[in-house]
Amino acid sequence: MRVRFAVLPALLTLGALAAPAGAQAATLTANAAKACYGAGDRVSLTGAGFTPGGMVKVTQGLRPLGENPTADPTGAFSGPVGVQQITAKAETVPYGAVDQTNPALFAITQPLRFSRLSGSIKKAGANGLIQRFRGRGFTTGSKFLYVHVRRGGRNVKTLRLGRLKGPCRTLNARKRFFSSGARTGAYQISFDSFRRYKEGRPQQLRSVFNVFRTFRRSSTATGAVAATSSASSVLGSWR
Questions:
Q1: In this structure, are 177 and 110 located in the same domain?
Q2: Residue 164 lies in a domain
Q3: 13 and 105, same structural domain?
Q4: What are the pLDDT digits (tens) for 121-137?
Q5: What are the tens digits of pLDDT across the range 8-65?
Q6: Number of folded domains in the chain?
Q7: Cα 224 from Cα 137, distance rounded (Å)
Q8: Contacts of 112 (CB under 8 A, 6+ apart)
Q9: Is the domain of 68 the same as that of 142?
Q10: Same domain for 64 and 13?
């Protein structure tokens, strides 16, 4: 983190020294609408002072975005760019823009905060019907995180897990996913910040739970419902 902030200002200083006398410095501004950005978000950038009609390479920190806008006849450009998934829980870095015709023309925005989309689930009850969820990076949608319980391609129920907290929208909560009378079989569990379920949202984590019936040894052979996750408890890599 500190290395990135040390390198970028140094590059700007060298660029300013290399630029011809009287040349106008390039500028880059982020119109930040959120305190923290996550997967699938877009950030509006405005640049000026670049080569007219030239291509500009945009980076998030030191990572190339693969989005290269073209400057207009005045050397300016504007529009939204994407957010790259990060490996750390969160980081604060600027966007950068480098002129591909004249690399001496480059600029950075003020630092912005980014969060990785991640989550984990852990059994909080003896039979697995109650689970503890920890997650972050739900920066799009409502202020609440929802659990969509689906079976056979149909929505069984939607539960509100809790209110997301902080700029990067984190949550640590316990919830009963299944009732004691739940039907046995495989269920898909999806986490996102929308009340209505929709397949393939950028900020959506999914798991599969198997609900089964257990029996106690007794003269009446009474049964009870239990649930287990068939996948890793780390949700960040699931899609």
A1: no
A2: yes
A3: yes
A4: 998 877 888 899 999 99
A5: 444 443 343 344 444 468 999 999 999 999 999 999 999 999 999 999 999 999 899 9
A6: 2
A7: 36
A8: 30, 32, 37, 43, 92, 93, 94, 95
A9: no
A10: yes
Q: Cβ atoms within 10 A of the Cβ of 217, count?
A: 6
Phi, psi of 232 (to 5 degrees): -60, 150
Q: Say whether both 69 and 156 belong to one domain.
A: no
How high is the pLDDT of residue 3? 33
Query: Which of 114, 149, 165 is at the close of a domain?
Result: 114
Distance CA 79, CA 18 (A): 28
Q: Are residues 130 and 79 part of one domain?
A: no
Q: Which of 99, 114, 129 is the last residue of a domain?
A: 114
Residues 6+ apart with CB under 8 A from 81: 42, 43, 45, 58, 65, 67, 95
Which is nearest to 177 in space by CA: 111, 233, 225, 238? 225
Domain of residue 172, residue span: 117-229
